[in-house]
Design goal:
Helix 2 packs across helix 5 and helix 3 packs across helix 5. The model has no long low-confidence stretch (mean pLDDT about 85). The N and C termini lie far apart (about 85 Å). A three-stranded antiparallel β-sheet has the order 1-2-3, covered by helices on one side. It has three domains: about 45 residues, no CATH class; about 80 residues, DNA polymerase, domain 1, CATH 1.10.150; about 180 residues, Orthogonal Bundle (hpI Integrase, Chain A). By secondary structure, it is mainly alpha-helical.
Amino acid sequence: MGHLYQRGKVWWIKYYISGRPVRETTGTEHEPEARRILKAKEGRVAAGLPVLPRADRVRYDEASQDLRAHYKATGCRDLDEADFRLAHLDRSFRGRRLADIGPADATRYVIERQAAGAANGTINRELATLSRMLRLAYENSKLLRIPVLKRLKEAAPRQGFFERDQFEAVRRHLAPDLQVLVSLAYAYGWRMSDELLSLERRQLDLAAGTLRLDGGATKNDDGRVVYLTPELKTLLAAQLERVEALGRRRGAIIPSLFPHLRGRRAGQPRGEFRKAWRTACRKAGVAGRIPHDFRRTAVRNMVNAGVPERVAMQVTGHRTRAVFDRYHIVSPADLQEVARKLAGTI
């Protein structure tokens, strides 16, 4: 039978494993909390489970660093994205004992983030990161149990997509290299920042008429190859000539397929082009659209063109049918087409 005792103001516990006494600090000055820790230890001993001598002293900070190290070692999550989500969690949970974090704390966190204007989907991604952290701590024997953190109901999937005339209107108001980018996004639904903007010249084979995404460079780690339409081959040949001309002027080989073409960053891979995008959308009369709308557009266009869904999913990089279905948006024009087809049969 274990018991409690104090050293100074801090409570210590003594319990037995196979007849051998074990003494350790609880790290708390509160007797009820110390007694709870003792009972948890005795319960694990009685059940024949391994006793975790540090579990009640592990802090959120340590678990957060463990998660970052896990992501870095496995590559299963983009580190910039993880740091973005962890930054909000850090502010709320830094210094807390990991064993004390439970559903009530998650509820308080949700209220704080909603007050800050965060969308439910964003909060859910952050709670998922916290849950992964807690599970990893449990797997590393730093947590006795995993609390259940309930997610919020999210808004319906965004319905934005481009009709052909809207796409062409936006494209007209962009620079030539950006016109190539959005044409690829419109055709194949590849992600703008993670996939298209990171392309290098070596991934383009004009002779074979293919464009390749390397495995490990995509969100789901799967490599992809697409065959180019005649229009896209022409556009990409012109883009390649622009990049090679820049390389000749600078006396250097530029690996990026979509680098900055002018200014002090000329030759460096291009990042997001938010200002140019917003301006083009405003001038085209479709303000508020986002580049990710091309992903929904490509799915819809391929399905409507009769491309088998399995093949379309391979092109866009969707692993699951459920996610793919969320992107297959039915437009008013689609519904009008149904009426036109029915008109000849009724």
